[in-house]
Structure formats: C-alpha cells, structure tokens
Amino acid sequence: MASTVYFVGLLLFLSVVGKGIAQECTLYSISYIQSLTGKIIQGKTEWKMTIINDCKCTQSNLKLRCVGFQSVEEVDPNAMAKTGDECLIKSGLPIPGFSHFSFIYAWDNSFPFRLLSSQITCS
C-alpha cells in the first residue's frame, strides 16, 4: 500500500515536471493507475482505480469507455456510473488540477478502461 502511494506521488511529480505547469490541458492530461488492494471479494481480485488530473485545469464530466465492465463488488454510483458503453466518473463533478480520484471494484483482472471525453475549465 505504501509503495502504491509513493508511486502515485512520484507519477504526479514527474507529470508536473515533464509537462510543465503552463502547458495546455487536454483529455490526455488525465492518466490512471490500477493497483491491487490485496483483498479478495467473492473469489475476485479487488482493484483500486486512481484517476489523475496531470494538468492545472479542472476536468469535469469525465467519461471512460467501459464496454463489458463487471464487478462482483458494488461500485459507488457517485464514483462511477455505467450507462451503456460509457462510465461517468465522480457523477461528472470536477476533478481539480493536479489531484486524483479513486474507486474500488472487484474482478479477475484489471479492466482496460479508455479515456472518452471530459470538459476542461481553466481559470
């Protein structure tokens, strides 16, 4: 667990240094890491999905492509809501610049989420 927190912190730091604070934000300023929590839920591995906003601007209405997503553990619908082939993250609420947001799910393997869209607001 401590190594995951260290890794996320290191990733955030390198993202800021590598991209520069003044660089324009895009959908691809969002990155994510999936890590094992160490728990088994109904025979399935529990995963922690951490979404990272690597930009100074706020990103809201973040949607991921999630065709076929399943979890034996209920995912908080305020964290991720699946509608068809899309998953809305954090009920569409803003993910501030240089911050992260996480949710938990349980399945055999980590799920191959793909970035779909977001609304970017810089002030």
Explained architecture:
- It contains one helix and seven strands; from the N terminus they run H-E-E-E-E-E-E-E.
- By secondary structure, the chain is mainly beta.
- Strand 1 (30-41) and strand 2 (44-53) form a beta hairpin.
Protein traits:
mainly beta, 1 helix, 123 residues, 7 strands, 3-stranded antiparallel sheet, elongated, 4-stranded antiparallel sheet
Largest sheet features: 4 strands, antiparallel
Proportion of residues in extended strands: 35-45%
* SS field, number of helical segments: 1
Write down the secondary-structure element order: HEEEEEEE
| Strand count | 7
Poorly predicted sequence stretches spanning 5 or more consecutive residues: 4-22
Q: What does the overall shape look like?
A: elongated
What value does the Rg take, in angstroms?
A: 15 Å
- Helix/strand-derived class? mainly beta
Mean pLDDT: 88
Q: Oligomer, anyone?
A: single chain
Q: Main sheet: which strands, in order across?
A: 4-5-3-7
What's the gist of this structure?
The strands form 2 sheets. A 4-stranded antiparallel sheet has the order 4-5-3-7, with no helix packed on it. A 3-stranded antiparallel sheet has the order 1-2-6, covered by helices on one side.
